[in-house]
Amino acid sequence: MSAPRIDTAPQLSVVVPVFNERDNVAPLVHEITAALRGRTDFEIVYVDDHSRDDTLQVLQALKAEVPELRVIHHVTQSGQSTAVRNGVKAARGTWIATLDGDGQNDPADIPKLLDKRDSAGADEGLKLFAGWRVNRQDSGSKRWASRWANAIRSRMLRDDTPDTGCGIKLFERAAFLELPYFDHMHRYLPALMQRAGWKTVSVPVNHRSRSTGVSKYNNLNRALVGISDLRGVAWLIKRGKVTAVRELS
């Protein structure tokens, strides 16, 4: 049964970037609604990064049965970070939850992140709750590459985050939109939030095998791009400055 469409701004926006994920769209959308209906007011913002299959048509058809669903379409392929950012810009919620569109993140973990946020309510400086895949369901080579990348990143950026590449995160929309934007920035959100003066925490979450479709990345292109990105983020952190301000009465 679908929920009635609500025109008021929701408390939470779930942003999901997708590219060529037509078979994963409907199952994931229904899992999100199952996890959140009755828990909080929410919307789902899918950002189609100019898919070459019929992902966009599947999403458009789903809107008729899922009133919380909104669909944003890139007229040219622009990458995951741009899709996440455009989804956050279009979102109406004060807080944002992100999920990868391949179904490997479990929407049932979103309430866990919300509970973690609510339990830390007195700490207004805590702006990001990052998923931590403690039981990765990827190939051995992919898990090895991820451990290697995380170790190098942690050494260079000192962001105290064991799994910055996990797609499921919860963060404050306003804080995110203040961060410097660049391609692949979604992989460095904890470090960027900390650079801005905010605190972050990692939360263990579920991770699932991909049931359909193929990965859009390989270990080599991740590594080559990651080296350049790490140097850039390290430079940003070195050059960053946070200054407390107060207005005189």
Question: Explain this structure to me?
Answer:
The chain is α/β, with parallel strands linked by helices and 249 residues long. It has eight helices and seven strands, in the order E-H-E-H-E-H-E-H-E-H-E-H-H-E-H. A seven-stranded mixed sheet has the order 3-2-1-4-6-5-7, sandwiched between helices. Helix 1 packs parallel to helix 2 and helix 5 runs parallel beside helix 8. The N and C termini lie far apart (54 Å). The relative contact order is 0.16.
CA radius of gyration is 18 Å
Strand neighbour order, sheet with most strands: 3-2-1-4-6-5-7
The biggest beta sheet is recorded as: 7 strands, mixed
| Structural domains: how many | 1
Calculate the terminal CA-CA distance, rounded to whole Å.
54 Å
Note the quaternary state here: single chain
What's the rounded overall pLDDT mean?
88
- By helix and strand content, what is the structural category? alpha/beta
SSE order, as H and E? EHEHEHEHEHEHHEH
Q: What's the total number of strands?
A: 7
| Helical residues, percent | 25-40%
By CATH, the superfamily comes out as Spore Coat Polysaccharide Biosynthesis Protein SpsA, Chain A
Indicate the proportion of strand residues: 15-25%
Number of helices: 8
Q: Which spans have pLDDT < 50 for at least 5 consecutive residues?
A: none
Assigned CATH class: Alpha Beta
CATH architecture: Alpha-Beta Complex
Organism: Lysobacter arenosi
Keywords: Cell membrane, Glycosyltransferase, Lipopolysaccharide biosynthesis, Membrane, Transferase, Transmembrane, Transmembrane helix
Domain Glycosyltransferase 2-like: 13-176
Protein name: Glycosyltransferase family 2 protein
